[in-house]
Amino acid sequence: MSTKDWSVARVRELWSVYWTRGTAGRETPAELVSIMYAWWFVALVLKLLGGSWDISWHFWTIRDNLAPPHDLNTVGTAIAVALVLFHTYTGYGADRTTLRWMQWGTGLFLIAIPIDVVNHTVNGLDITTWSPSHSLLFIGTAGMLIGVALGWHRNAARGRWFVPGLLVLLAMIFEDFWFPNEQQEYGVLEIASWDANPGHPYANQELLKFASDQIHQPIGRAGIVHFSLPMPDWVYPVWGLGVCVLLFALGRQIVGRRWAATAIAGLYVGFRSVLWLVLTATTFPPSAVPFFLLGAGVAIDLVFLLPLSRWLRPFVGAIVVTAVAYGLLFAQSVLLAAPPRAVWAAPISAAVLAILWLAATAWTSRERARSRRPLDRSLNSIESVHRSS
């Protein structure tokens, strides 16, 4: 856009034209769709950066409500709230289902913030990403992201930015689902930092003392292990491969193009790799980057190339993806670094993935039929006119 397009007069003009009361699903000009969802991308990127920095921050020092990562996330949340209010009042850019996802997701996130503050005030340090108050934050963000992805899929123009935008949104949804697993990915390197330099890990002395006091022991490796890897070893693979990897398969079905799952995995692993470089360069605690997810994405795309029925594919795919991911996860643990994983949990991971993949296939089939109905009616009308002429 030119400078003129973003002048104060232009903003006032757009506001006077579009700030009118309407119901969800209102016909939205392409220009307004572009503006609204451009701001959604800004809001979500700020929240992504704030959240990613936040978990590293918590592996370095005691929590602070006004820490820079929280401030960055707050700015993104404020923009998101403003956008939800605009969608709700005007009815532009979101149908009823899309708007409900946005509203409930944003509302739950806002409710979770004071709950999390109270939790930390009462209990002090809450380092695990799996705590109830943190889970509410992730669930709320997930609802918000799903709403934005639905809105983009249903309203954005089918131009050159449609598929890339959809892939980015799907990668962001994956990041939100995967986020709790980062507890173990940061934790394994936190322990390694102690082993490499006992007494001087990534965590500062205040955090070390707090963690050691929780287990009533002097500062030492036991305290580091206590706050770094608090979850059982089966959680990482079952949640990561049984639940999160489903989003690669779902993304492949939604986008409908070859190598879409690989693209989503590549976007996420690429982001984590860049984040690792930035955190390392700024002396913040880094994490073990889950490179094995690239193999999971490729495996899913290859399964979609096999001549399988859509109802058989989830079962074959779950077995193949679990085997490939477990093998690559083991290789990464030997060659680089990776969280501990329970090998016995592999069948459970495969079973969970197969069930969820089957459910996702049923949902995408209905969604695809819904989106094609207007097109089918148009084609039938054109064909009738052609025959009559």
TrEMBL record:
Positions of transmembrane segments: 37-60, 72-92, 104-122, 134-152, 161-179, 234-252, 259-279, 291-308, 315-338, 344-363
Record bears the keyword Nuclease: no
Record carries keyword Transferase: no
Keywords: Membrane, Transmembrane, Transmembrane helix
Protein name (Swiss-Prot/TrEMBL): Uncharacterized protein
